[in-house]
Each structure stands twice: as structure tokens, then as C-alpha cells.
């Protein structure tokens, strides 16, 4: 007696409210309500906030686009077989290799997020990809040259930034291997799920750019708010205290969300702070800021970001303080 397996009717995909739709709705609401919003926003503080917000977005967007294009090239044209020849099979060796590979990709931290996501899609061990994420914005030649220009006659500051940033990236990679197995498994599964739905080159570009740019805008809004509404006098009062000075500049680096190729000039302007505190600012910022945290939550999930962000900040501060004590 034969049994027939019932055939289910194909279900039409329902409407899903994604990031693009949310952004479109928000823009529409703003356009429709501008008659009432403009008088409320006509204030010096809001004008300052708008200027800083636009500056952060304009400064970061080209690097984000560059990272998205590179990510699309990796996702579309680079096979797992080719990557297996480049990246060591052992993640223990792959982590320091990824840290040093950051030297070869001049760019901002915004570019590294989509590239890291693309590497995970292509089967690179998540710990190795995350090491690249942390190293690329901090140890590339463009960043080191800008640091040398911002701190003339202080070559040890350049060396200290390079070493502290590289140690941070490699240490986090190894810690994630040893203690973050569950999180890394989630990233691996995420990469497999995305890899199961192959896209064209333009499809990868549009998907990654729309996805990452929304979180870039959110992070830029928060960073601009902190820059505008937190009095600088509050920051200056703690500059003379060693521990509070380090903690203040670490927090400042996280919230102001500067590009890694320009943050050295800001750090050099903190004349009241110690060189070690300035180094903390230079190491924490490219490794983790509010803009990056927002983008990583969007790319890898909020649960991952809640664990990864504190780990990176603590490791970066410890590395910078140690190297600063040794060299500065």
C-alpha cells in the first residue's frame, strides 16, 4: 500500500519590514513634519550637532564604501580554496597573521566591518576575521604616518601605537578562541546562512552598504550628541589625575567615533593629559567606538556585540597602559 506525501502549497513570502523600509519611513515622517520640526531645531546646539553629525558621516562614508566594494569582491570572486592557501589552517597561527595583514589595508574602521563579515562568509575562522577587524584600522601605514605628523619628534608614540594596537587585536583573537567558542559558533553559522544565498557583485554591494550605513548613521548621531552636549570643562577637570585621565580618554575615544586616520591630531590637542592617556585614546578608538559597536551589532547580532565590545575595550586599555608605561 503506497502512501502519498501531501504536497504543501508554496507560500508567498510575506512583507518584511527591514532596515531599508524603516529608513524610508523615518525620512518620510521627517519630510512631512518639517514645518513643525524646523522651529524647534533652530538652535545653536542643534546646529552644532548637525555639523558634527554630517562631518562624521562624510568622513566615514568613503571608507565604508571602499570596505563594501572589497567585501563584495571577496564574497563574489574569492573562493574558499583560494582563501585556504592564504590563511593558515590553524586559527592559533591565523590570528597573528591576520593582525599583521592589517598593515596591507589602509582604511578606516568602517571599511573593516563589512570585510570581516565577508571573510566569515567565505569560511575564514571567526577569531581570525575578528583579529583583522581590530588590526586593519590601527596598524596600517596611513594611520602610522598621520600619528607621526601629529606627534613630531615623538617616534616612540608611533611605535607605541603600533605595538599596543597589534597586541590588542591578537590578544582578543586568542581570547575569543579560548573563551568565546559559543559566540564564534554563532558567527560561523551566520556566515553559512548568508553563504547559502549567493548574490551577484552588485547585489553584495547594495546589501552590505545599505545594511552597514544605517548603523553608521545611528552611531554618528550618538557620537555627535556627546560631542555637542557634554561640556569640555568636565573633561578637562580630570586631566591631571592619572587613572581618571586614562578612563576619561578611553570613554572619550569610544563616544566621539573619530576616523583612525585623523584621531592622532585630536589626541595631540589634549595637552593637559599624559602621553599614556593619549595612547589609550589612540588604541581604543580604532578598536572600538560607538559607531563600530552599532555596526557590529547590526552585522553580527546584539548578543555578540554585548560581549565583544567590553572585551575589546578592556584589552585595548590594558595593552595601551602597559606599552605606555614601557615606552612613554
Automatic annotation (TrEMBL):
Signal peptide: none annotated. The keyword Transmembrane helix applies. GO terms for cellular component: plasma membrane. It holds the Pfam family ArsP_1. It is found in: Cell membrane. Keywords: Cell membrane, Membrane, Transmembrane, Transmembrane helix. It is a multi-pass membrane protein. The keyword Electron transport does not apply. The chain crosses the membrane at residues 21-38, 50-78, 90-115, 127-151, 158-177, 209-230, 237-258, 264-284, 304-327. It comes from the Bacteria. PANTHER family: UPF0718 PROTEIN YCGR. Belongs to the UPF0718 family. This is Permease.
Amino acid at each position: 500500500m503506497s502512501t502519498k506525501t501531501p504536497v504543501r502549497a508554496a507560500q508567498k513570502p510575506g512583507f518584511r519590514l527591514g532596515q531599508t523600509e524603516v529608513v524610508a519611513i523615518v525620512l518620510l515622517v521627517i519630510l512631512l513634519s518639517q514645518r513643525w520640526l524646523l522651529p524647534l531645531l533652530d538652535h545653536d546646539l542643534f546646529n552644532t550637532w548637525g555639523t558634527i553629525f554630517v562631518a562624521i558621516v562624510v568622513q566615514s562614508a568613503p571608507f565604508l564604501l571602499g570596505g563594501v566594494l572589497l567585501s563584495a569582491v571577496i564574497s563574489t570572486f574569492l573562493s574558499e580554496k583560494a582563501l585556504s592557501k592564504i590563511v593558515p589552517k590553524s586559527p592559533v597561527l591565523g590570528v597573528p597573521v591576520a593582525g599583521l595583514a592589517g598593515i596591507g589595508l589602509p582604511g578606516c574602521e568602517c571599511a573593516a566591518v563589512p570585510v570581516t563579515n565577508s571573510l566569515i562568509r567565505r569560511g575564514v575562522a571567526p577569531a581570525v576575521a575578528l583579529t583583522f577587524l581590530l588590526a586593519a584600522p590601527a596598524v596600517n601605514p596611513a594611520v602610522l604616518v598621520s600619528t607621526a605628523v601629529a606627534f613630531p619628534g615623538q617616534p616612540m608614540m608611533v611605535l607605541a601605537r603600533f605595538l599596543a594596537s597589534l597586541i590588542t587585536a591578537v590578544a582578543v583573537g586568542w581570547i575569543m578562541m579560548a573563551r568565546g567558542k559559543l559566540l564564534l559558533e554563532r558567527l560561523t553559522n551566520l556566515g553559512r546562512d548568508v553563504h547559502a544565498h549567493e548574490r551577484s557583485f552588485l547585489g553584495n554591494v547594495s546589501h552590505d552598504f545599505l545594511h552597514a550605513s544605517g548603523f553608521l548613521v545611528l552611531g554618528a548621531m550618538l557620537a555627535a550628541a556627546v560631542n555637542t552636549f557634554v561640556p569640555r570643562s568636565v573633561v578637562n577637570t580630570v586631566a591631571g589625575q592619572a587613572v581618571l585621565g586614562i578612563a576619561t580618554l578611553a570613554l572619550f575615544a569610544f563616544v566621539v567615533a573619530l576616523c583612525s586616520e585623523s584621531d592622532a591630531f585630536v589626541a595631540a590637542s589634549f595637552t593637559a593629559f599624559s602621553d599614556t592617556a593619549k595612547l589609550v585614546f589612540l588604541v581604543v578608538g580604532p578598536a572600538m567606538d560607538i559607531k563600530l559597536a552599532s555596526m557590529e551589532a547590526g552585522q553580527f547580532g546584539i548578543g555578540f556585540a554585548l560581549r565583544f565590545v567590553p572585551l575589546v575595550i578592556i584589552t585595548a586599555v590594558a595593552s595601551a597602559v602597559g606599552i605606555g608605561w614601557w615606552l612613554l
